[in-house]
Every structure is written in C-alpha cells, then in structure tokens.
Amino acid sequence: MPVDIQTLEPAVRDPKKLRRTAWILVAIMILGGIMVLSAYVLKNKADQKKALSEDHSRPAIISRIDKGRDLRVLRQDNHQAGLLDLGGKVWLACAVSSSDPAISARSVEVMKRLAERYKATEDVAFVTLVIDPGPAEDLHGLLVTESGKLGATLPQWWVASTEPQTLYKFIKNEFKTSLFPHQEDGKWKYDTSIVVVDRNRHVRNAVIPQKRGGEAYVARFDFDQAAEWDARGVKTGTDQTNAQTLEGVLVKTIEQLREEPLKD
Questions:
Q1: pLDDT band with cut points at 50, 70 and 90 for residue 43
Q2: Helices (H), strands (E): how many in the chain?
Q3: What share of the chain has pLDDT > 70, as a percent?
C-alpha cells in the first residue's frame, strides 16, 4: 500500500537524549586522548630504560646513523668526504657559528683540550660543523680560517660544512639534538652539546649512576647547561665544578668506547 508522504511527520528530537549523546561522544574522545597520551608516556619511559646500559656503567645508545643517511661535507683541505668515512673511530662533533663563535665557546674549548689529549691517538677524531657557511664559492676559504682559529689539522680534526638545510636536518635527525639550527632576531640558536659517535655509528650519551640509588641519569655532553648549574650553585658532591665533572665523564666515555669492538 503506497504511503502518503504528506501524512508523515518529522521525528521529535528529545533535547535530553541529544545532550546525553553529546556527552558520551565527548567522554569517548577524552578517554581516547588519555589512552594515547598514556601510551606515549609509557613508550618514552621504555625508550629511556632501553637507552641505559645493562649495568648502568656503559655509555647509553641514543640512535644509530644509517649508512644511507651519511652527510657529505667539504673539509678544510677542499676535499669532499662523508662523516661516516670516520667509521671505525670514536669521533666527537660540535656545531659552531663562524659569525658568532661565542655561542659554542665552552664546547670548543673542551674539544681543543681533548684534541690535544688524543693527538697521538689514531682511533679518536673530531669534527667541527660550521652552520653558517656563506656562499659556496667562499666556503673553502672560510673553513681554512676556522681551522686556523681552532688549531684543527687533518686527519685528526675535520672542520667542515655543506648546504645549510641538509646540514641542519642531519644535525637534528641523526645527532638527536634539542634544536633545529635557526636564527631568531639575527641570533643563531642551536644545540652546542658535544656529540659522541662510537666506531659502530651509534650516538652515545653518558650514563651517570646516582649516588643515592635509583635509575641512572642519561646525560648529553652539554657544557652550557653544566656552566648554568655552576652559576646557580648546584653542587657536585666533589671539589670539581659541574663543567669539570662533565668533561671527566666525557673522557671516561671515550675510553670506554675505544674498548668496544668494530662490528661492521
């Protein structure tokens, strides 16, 4: 029997039911958000635990530089090379600004001391990456000037750079730094920490056991932060400053990594 559509009436909407449905949807969204956040937090905690060495005494593995993501750079000898050409060595890297060297001055001074310490050691190398290379045609001259300021000589100490955006992405993604290099109000902003890479391309951080027990502290070699702690009067429990303590941990880390075998 055909239906006379003129006799049909629109459904009556119950405001209470609509509100109840809306609140249920809101609750579902909130619960979903909490579950996603909880999963994220748990994953971060798991990653942090994974980063710690089993005996809390070996340097923590933060990441590994894939061979397919090597960074090709121009060095102070006007030759191109890949950073992974340093494979088989323990190497330290630090970013600098040629236009404002004061930004990374603390880390550079540490690099100088360590380069002197390991000058007769073939399996330890140093890399300074210039984040403001300027015009490509002037790059070689800039690298020569910067290497002269540092006292950096090959083959031990590379002073190098490349196309800025490629360099910045490598620093952020492969070194796992806290900042993507950029300028704010004409000032460079970048992570001045010293990055340590072992002979198997792993980026390593220090693992510092806590004197009062508990989980060990995974630390970057951030000498600006150490200096800030010293300025605030944070004590180390020894007669050394935080900066001196961190440098000692860095030397210990290098020595530990030199003992590890080359696996590939």
A1: very low
A2: 6, 11
A3: 80
Structure-token match 């702690």, residue found = 229
**pLDDT tens-digit readout, 212-250:** 666 777 889 999 999 999 999 988 788 899 999 999 999
Q: H or E element: which one contains 248?
A: helix 242-259
* Distance (Å, whole) CA 68 – CA 76: 24
Rounded Cα distance between 80 and 219, Å, is: 32
DSSP 8-state assignment for residue 58:
S
Alpha helices in 52-163 (DSSP H): 105-117, 139-150
Which residue blocks in 91-179 are alpha helix, DSSP H? 105-117, 139-150, 164-174
CA distance linking residue 146 with residue 97, whole number of Å: 10
Q: What residue has token string 């933060």? A: 62
Q: Which residues contact 158 (CB under 8 A, 6 or more apart)?
A: 73, 75, 76, 81, 125, 126, 127, 128, 152
Q: How confident is the model at residue 3 (pLDDT cuts 50, 70, 90)?
A: very low
Task: Find where tokens 């007769």 sit.
Answer: 120
Closest C-alpha to 208, from 248, 150, 235: 248
How is residue 212 written in tokens? 């009062």
Cβ pair 146, 177 in contact under 8 A: no
Query: Predicted confidence band at 44 (pLDDT cuts at 50, 70, 90)?
Result: very low
